[in-house]
Write a structure and sequence with these properties.
With 308 residues, the protein is of the alpha/beta class. The protein is built from eleven helices and eight strands.
Length: 308
């Protein structure tokens, strides 16, 4: 807490001194939307489209669970017309910073949907969570059904700061929602015909996805926040299941070491497949035009390969 208080003091000093030169000359006259989460950033840019009045900025921070704003980041947040972030336990530091930053117009993704408790994971094999018994799963964007709800809430927030272009934003959001709905229907059809269990030899930040579509899965880790490695008994269970169901593919998520998934694959002769949670994106992926839709379409193809 002392460290955080020190940051807040310095943050205030930065603002007093006016060191908030965080926008490029081309964007300095535009309304500013700032996001710390890739999905939120992508939803916002889909709604805004080719707007000449609003700019959307993504604060790449590596691991979003440990976002540590720089002074420039904090000034950018303070000056934003709309600040988008996940909220919840992982963003507790941001919530504290916002309390000391005065009035900042914010939208938290977790406020847009019905939250699920971490203990709602059907295949809970551990009894403790890093964030305690009261923790909710914060990866709300992983379900396209939730994405639709978030886009609607975000649309309202964007129209509120730029009512003059509201009709354009509504049209953009409607077209994007149609794409999300089509994607959702594809997942529903695929998983309804599921013949095999999806094995994740990794953490599982996909509770909302699994809950929305009825995905039958087993995971090495309980949820996303577990810090301890899975027990040898748990790994043995997954190996046995993979052999029993003749599962040819073991899933891992982006940014993971793949150590557990690789071990299960080696023991069973299976191959590894990526399921991208849209949790982290690399600079290379951004340069290649990655979007929520393209990443989730890749996930559909991976699930189709694994489940059928």
């Amino acid at each position: 807490m002392k460290h955080l208080s020190f940051i807040l003091c310095l943050f205030s000093l930065v603002l007093v001194l006016g060191l908030v030169g965080c926008t490029s000359p081309s964007d300095e006259n535009k309304l500013s939307i700032v996001a710390t989460n890739f999905a939120a950033y992508d939803f916002a840019r889909e709604i805004v489209g080719n707007s000449n009045t609003v700019s959307v900025t993504f604060m790449t921070s590596g691991d979003v669970h440990s976002f540590n704003p720089t002074f420039k980041d904090m000034a950018t947040i303070k000056s934003a017309d709309l600040f988008l972030y996940v909220g919840g336990t992982s963003d507790a530091a941001i919530d504290t910073l916002l309390k000391g930053a005065g009035e900042v117009n914010t939208l938290r993704l977790i406020d847009c949907v019905t939250l699920l408790h971490e203990s709602d994971h059907e295949h809970e094999h551990e009894t403790e969570h890093e964030h305690g018994d009261a923790a909710y799963d914060e990866h709300v964007w992983t379900s396209p059904k939730n994405a639709i709800l978030i886009v609607q809430a975000m649309l309202d927030a964007i129209v509120a700061i730029d009512e003059a272009n509201g009709d354009t934003y509504r049209q953009n959001a409607a077209a994007y929602t149609e794409q999300l709905s089509a994607l959702s229907e594809k997942f529903e059809t695929l998983i309804r015909s599921q013949t095999k269990t999806a094995i994740f030899g990794d953490r599982f930040p996909l509770l909302y996805f699994a809950n929305a579509y009825g995905l039958r899965y087993e995971a090495a880790f309980p949820g996303c926040h577990a810090t301890a490695e899975p027990s040898p008994a748990r790994i043995a269970e997954l190996i046995a299941l993979a052999e029993q169901e003749e599962i040819a593919y073991i899933f891992h998520i982006e940014g993971a070491t793949q150590a557990v998934a690789s071990r299960i694959a080696e023991e069973t002769g299976a191959s590894l497949l990526l399921f991208h949670t849209c949790h982290k994106v690399t600079s290379e992926e951004l340069k290649e035009g990655a979007s929520y839709l393209t990443l989730m379409e890749n996930n559909y193809q991976a699930l189709e390969k694994a489940l059928r």
